[in-house]
Amino acid sequence: MKNSDTLVSVLVRRVRQARPLHASLCAVGVIAATTALAQHSDPAQHDNHERPSLRPEQPIYVLHGEGSGNYPGFGYSIANLGDADGDGVPDIVVGEPYELAFFGGKVKVYSGRTGAPLLPPITQPGTQLLGFSVAGISDVDGDGHADILVGDPMFSAPAPSYKGQAFVFSGSNGALLFHVTGDTVADEFGYSVAGVGDIDGDGVPDWAVGATQDSDSSNGSGFVRLFSGATSAVIRTYITKGFHKRFGQSLVNVGDINGDGVPDLLIGCSKGNFVQMRSGATGAVLWQKSGPSLPFSGLGWCVANAGDWDGDGVPDLVIGDPGASMVQIRRATDGALLTEIDGPTNVFFGGAVAGLGDVDHDGYGDVAIGAKWMPGGASATGAAWIYSGHTHMTIASYTGMYGDYLGFALAAVGDLDGDGILDLAIGATQDNNGGPGFVAVFSGAR
């Protein structure tokens, strides 16, 4: 196994005949090879489908954090960086915001091909939770290598506290390219970050940062700010109405959905319980959709591109609502609801999502969903599933060991093994209840 200090064995429950999600929760574990497999209930007791086979599957590699502590650490955030080292394979960036005991944080960059570190850990003086959010933003400095966008929403020094900040670092050498901050106290600027493509038409990719509080406004609803990739000048700021909505909780570049030649942006507003599609060219609201009217529903906690979920040739979106234990699939062009995926309750199902494209070669896009508290209670092993866009059934399932919080973060990290299918990175931020955390990278091919 590549780049792994301890042997990690993974069993993936591969489905001969697809089964409903509720019947696959006894899935498979990411387990230490020297540890006995945890007891799981027999899936045959839950449905009448043929019992699936178990087949050992090693990850492509496992990335490990360092240190220890009671806060979630390595694998808190994960992103496809793009090709930073020029070998033609996408590389991976991982955030470790609690590595320096709540006053610091680190960002680490790894070769997608081998899992080896490409750079020394990236740190910055005066940060508090560096790596809380990470994104690849393509090449903004013109050196031919993908660059890195990083958020630190708890930045407090100098005052005011928690106004937040974001950085752009060179993907080739880790050098600081740009630094921007929130406006005032408790903005939480940097809670989310995203590369947004070329918004201003200068040929350089631009980037966006979410501030979930916007405390200098009258309602604290949050804002999203677009920056020039060439200069870091502000292109536009998106705001919304309503009190403490956490607008900007999540962001994703959805490409050009309205045909004007400019990429558009989906914004999650979890406390407002809605997602909003904004025009990249004008900032206009293209559509807005709300989650269910349930006590803890928070649609937009996380968002991702889902590929073509329903096979109609139109791109779709996957949107998490862990408060309602649910994930929605919506059409990108108009927000039409295509599917709701209900999961187990009280395990943060839908707290992380990723679109993988068509991993099983059936012509439909597939998605990954995480539940970091699975199976509930104090164990918090965590779990993740790959879910079929064609059958609406689980294709594969993963679970951690006690206290791993597996599924805390998910990312489609590109085709690392050369099989033409996007691969999946799964973050486990605790690594056996207080460990440094790890990221397991699996082949997406089913």
Describe this structure in words.
With 446 residues, the protein is mostly beta strands. The strands form eight sheets. Strands 4-31-30-29 form a four-stranded antiparallel sheet, with no helix packed on it. A four-stranded mixed sheet has the order 5-6-7-8, with no helix packed on it. Strands 9-10-11-12 form a four-stranded antiparallel sheet, with no helix packed on it. It is globular, with a radius of gyration of 20 Å. 58% of the residues are buried.
Brief account:
By secondary structure, the protein is mostly beta strands. Helices cover 0% and strands 40% of the residues.
How much helical structure, as a percent, in the residues? under 10%
Tell me which oligomeric state these chains represent: single chain
Which percent range describes the beta-strand content?
35-45%
Number of helices: 0
Count all strands and give the number. Answer: 31
Q: Return residue spans where pLDDT drops below 50 for at least 5 consecutive residues.
A: 1-56
Mean pLDDT: 84
Radius of gyration: 20 Å
> Shape, please?
globular
End-to-end distance, in Å?
A: 20 Å
The profile of the biggest β sheet is: 4 strands, antiparallel
- Order of adjacent strands in the largest pleated sheet: 4-31-30-29
- Judged by helices, strands and strand pairing, the structural class is mainly beta
